Amino acid sequence: MSGFENLSERDRAVLRSIFDPTATIGDVVDDGDHFLDGEDTDLNTEAKSLCIRGVQLAEAGKLEEALELLNRSIDIAPERAPGYNDRAQLYRLLKTSVDTR
Known about the structure:
This protein is mostly helical and 101 residues long. The protein has two domains: 1-35, no CATH class; 42-99, Serine Threonine Protein Phosphatase 5, Tetratricopeptide repeat (Alpha Horseshoe), CATH 1.25.40. The chain has five helices and no strands. Helix 3 (42-59) packs antiparallel against helix 4, helix 3 runs parallel beside helix 5 and helix 4 (63-76) packs antiparallel against helix 5. The N and C termini lie far apart (46 Å). The relative contact order is 0.14. This is Tetratricopeptide repeat protein 36 isoform 1. Belongs to the TTC36 family.
């Protein structure tokens, strides 16, 4: 008995995000989980869009530009958790790129 059978899907998603440091929250949340994006407001929609663009920039190697978008996302919707997670992943990438120079 693993002890995970009584966890909510939200708790399982959080644990997956903790134990898979390469994943973003969006990668580990099941389709039924909507707790991470908060309410459907114009600000949350804009923040989500900024995060998506920021992740795309990071994947293209434009880390500083990505950081600007992720910071803006958090500024306009500070209660939206995925922005913080995406920014934390980006900081990890930035540190790695500095360490390998």
